[in-house]
Amino acid sequence: MRKITYSCEVHAALDTVWKLLVEKVEQPQIYLPGVVHSRILQHYGNGLLREVKGEGMLIKEKVVIDRAHGEVHYFLLEHPLFTGRVVNRVVPSSVQSPVAPQLLTIEVDWVPKDERAEHLIQTAIPDQIQSEVLAIKQRAEAMEKEASLPLSTPYGFGLTVSLPFGDAVRKVHEELAKEGFGIVSEIDMKEKFREKLHKEFRNYLILGACNPGLAYQAVGVDLNIGTLLPCNVVLYSITEFRTVVMIMDPVAAMALVGNPQLVELAETVRQSMQRVLAAL
What we know:
The protein is of the alpha+beta class. The protein folds into 2 domains: 2-147, 2-Layer Sandwich (Alpha-D-Glucose-1,6-Bisphosphate, Chain A, domain 4), CATH 3.30.530.20; 151-279, 2-Layer Sandwich (TATA-Binding Protein), CATH 3.30.310.70. The chain has helices spanning 14-26, 115-122, 124-147, 165-178, 189-197, 212-221, 250-254, 260-279, and strands spanning 2-10, 35-44, 47-54, 57-66, 71-78, 82-92, 102-112, 151-153, 156-161, 182-188, 204-210, 231-239, 242-248. A hairpin with a 2-residue loop joins strand 2 and strand 3 (47-54). The two termini are 47 Å apart.
């Protein structure tokens, strides 16, 4: 049996890389040069049987998807040149740091059937495995970069962070406190939808953030301004390890009033909130 392994770090969220490994199971032509056709023959509990055609060969594989260990196993059932298996694996490079890169590995354990196969496994296949790993890395990091772009609406601004929902909530609390903001209200929309409508929804939390000193100045200018307070901060899950943080734009809100003093105060709040986002 010949064993070939190639690993590299990927600066992307774990679920981003995992999503690509699963996509490669169903659409190998995106990742494997020479593949012209693929067909899923059967689905079962934790995997599938598939057929892949390319470079004059027809290959049949049993694929086992092990999400708990971050592994996808490909067992060769029919191959003109080899027997054996391939493992695609992604694991965190550090369990202590949620923003640490992921370690992506492709491990090939193949037995050549003839001299041609022996030659390929000593020459071309190691480079193919390396290219495959690097292609997944490039694709994952490009997706990560795109997902991390600032988010903006006419009434708010935010970004996507590579943190699980609970970690993101704790981090937002910490950074708001550093800017002098306390949380005066907290609405768990997921729980409310479950309780009132018996509907399931993603993690979705609305935090009412208030800086007492700035709020005091604002109501001193206009007693009715409380209708636009506090400054809402919204967090919601988009995947297991990615969370969106959106903040109400206080300048956009205060612009409705038309009072320059309030807009000036709102600009101070906006700068604080931008620092909160920058620290996430």
